Amino acid sequence: MHASTLFTSIVTAAFFTLAKAHGEVVKIEVAGQTFNAPLINAGGDTGPFNVPSNNSPVTDVTSDNMFCGAVGNKATSTPSIDLSKGNTISFYWGSGYSAGTTWPHNTGPMFLYMAKCDGADCSSMTPSNTNFIKVEQQGFVNGQWAQAALKAGQPATFTIPSDLASGKYLVRHEVINLANTDENFPACSQFDITGGSNDYSSAKTAKFPGAYSATDAGLVVAGSAVYSIKSDAAYVFPGPDPINPTDGSSSGSGSSVSPSGSVSIGSSASNSSVAIHPTSILAVSAAIPIPTPSAVSSSPIATMNSSSTAAGSSSPSPSPSPSSPSSPSPSPSSLPTHAIQHGHHVTHPT
């Protein structure tokens, strides 16, 4: 064999060996739908995938490639998914250069990050203007890294909160290989999600690059030291904490107190409310007349009761005997109008 031909064969074999040693997301299943990624450098319609220019890892955590990898072709569409039809999302990994290949690594964590897009699509999202929330992180399952499932041809599956606010999202899935050195494999896709109303606005966010440091405990452990770690409790995940149900806000009905002291009562679904200020309550109270003692004493009922009391003081009425019928109560027609409306008994205000 000619020397140049032999050299070319060696280089080609080395390239494909290297390519096989890494990988890229080749398929996504979410909400009952399946999306297949085109091969690297194939061009054409890429669907929801940001297709990389190669399948090599990002080894410098300060590189802009930490955002979505070395993107060769951006997504050409933003498919709609309805979380009510399923809120798990599964990522299948392969070499990215040929079909039927699997992920070659099994050591290190996996993540799901998401960021709501500002425009009609996610094409304007950049490392400087994008704030991701960490939806989920996966370390160990039954004593081994969850990443080992990828090597067996299974997907990395995460759960998107069903109450996540509807809108277009940039989805950043990441696998970190810690077998020898820190190797980061971020992969981005985009979807128009129909969900709930929780924007998780109080959750900690992450920018890429920026969220990780080369000195993070969960990254410097790469190599021989990582094999002594056997549980999530013994591993320090890089990046912010994942979101939890108490983060952010969701619309609903209720009451709130404004800085001015007024109370708003209403439903955000209709975006309507009624504001009642404390001074308004006082004004209503002031508009209701409260009778004074003198006014009460001059009323027909008070006069009637006073006369009865005076008569009783000079000649007390004997108690009725069991055989004697009680004196009949006055009929409504014989009572003053005020007594008919409010009863016989009057309590004087103190």
From TrEMBL:
It catalyses: [(1->4)-beta-D-glucosyl]n+m + reduced acceptor + O2 = 4-dehydro-beta-D-glucosyl-[(1->4)-beta-D-glucosyl]n-1 + [(1->4)-beta-D-glucosyl]m + acceptor + H2O. GO terms for molecular function: cellulase activity; cellulose binding. Residues 1-21 form the signal peptide. InterPro entries: AA9, AA9_LPMO. Residues 248-269 have a biased composition (Low complexity). Residues 317-333 have a biased composition (Pro residues). Residues 294-312 have a biased composition (Polar residues). Residues 240-269, 294-350 are annotated as: Disordered. GO terms for cellular component: extracellular region. It is an enzyme of class 1 (oxidoreductase). Its EC number is 1.14.99.56. Residues 341-350 have a biased composition (Basic residues). Residues 22-222 form the Auxiliary Activity family 9 catalytic domain. GO terms for biological process: cellulose catabolic process. The keyword Secreted applies. It is found in: Secreted. Keywords: Carbohydrate metabolism, Cellulose degradation, Disulfide bond, Polysaccharide degradation, Secreted, Signal. The keyword Cell inner membrane does not apply. Pfam families: AA9 (PF03443). Lytic polysaccharide monooxygenase (LMPO) that depolymerizes crystalline and amorphous polysaccharides via the oxidation of scissile alpha- or beta-(1-4)-glycosidic bonds, yielding C1 and/or C4 oxidation products. Catalysis by LPMOs requires the reduction of the active-site copper from Cu(II) to Cu(I) by a reducing agent and H(2)O(2) or O(2) as a cosubstrate. Has a modular structure: an endo-beta-1,4-glucanase catalytic module at the N-terminus, a linker rich in serines and threonines, and a C-terminal carbohydrate-binding module (CBM). This is AA9 family lytic polysaccharide monooxygenase. It comes from Collybiopsis confluens.
